[in-house]
Amino acid sequence: MGSMINLLKLCVGADSVEDLLDWQRSQRSHWPEGKAIHVTRMWPKREAEVLEGGSLYWVIKGVILARQRVVDLQEVNLGDGIPRCALVLDQEVIRTEAAPRRPFQGWRYLDPKDSPRDLPKGRGKDDPLPPALAQALAELGLH
């Protein structure tokens, strides 16, 4: 088994993990069974490492709060002549410890050693903290 790398992406338009879940539920009929799709412009050059068990970590309102395992990368053409990369994701959204991130364009690689830990199963069912409070606690190193 080779080395593994994660991806990091802003979840534009979402104020909470619930918003991400709601949007993905609304799109599910367009996607392969049990999968979620996110289309992006740039193809990861480290494709093999991403597919070695990597996840897409979602930054929501300036804080990493969740991830989804990347199961495939597929080329997509939306008819404008610009090839894009469809990140094929496992349908399960796994909540993570809050970790603040500054805004950036596109996606970034995220080393596993710098990736926030998953929350214990069941913790995701707790009432979520307001994003501003989650960010403040993450910046203080408290979770």
Structure, described:
- The relative contact order is 0.24.
- The chain contains 3 helices and 7 strands; from the N terminus they run βαβαβββββα.
- Strands 1, 2, 3, 4, 5, 6 and 7 form a 7-stranded mixed beta sheet that branches.
- The longest helix is centred in the N-terminal third of the chain and has 11 residues.
- The radius of gyration is 15 Å and the shape is globular.
- The model has no long low-confidence stretch (mean pLDDT 88).
- It is an alpha+beta fold and 143 residues long.
The secondary structure category is alpha+beta
The share of residues in extended strands comes to 35-45%
Distance, first to last CA: 32 Å
- Rg over CA atoms: 15 Å
Averaged pLDDT, please?
Answer: 88
The number of helical segments is: 3
Number of DSSP strand runs: 7
**Unreliably modeled segments:** none
Note the overall shape: globular
Give the helices and strands as they follow along the chain: EHEHEEEEEH
Write down the oligomeric state.
Answer: single chain
What percentage of residues falls in helices of 4 or more residues? 10-25%
Main sheet characteristics = 7 strands, mixed
Summary tags:
143 residues, seven-stranded mixed β-sheet, alpha+beta, globular, 36% strand
Short description:
By secondary structure, the protein is α+β, with helices and mostly antiparallel strands.
Write the layout of secondary structure elements.
Layout: E1 6-10, H1 17-27, E2 35-40, H2 47-50, E3 55-60, E4 63-77, E5 83-90, E6 94-100, E7 107-110, H3 131-140
Parallel strand pairs: 1-3
Antiparallel strand pairs: 1-7, 2-5, 3-4, 4-5, 4-6
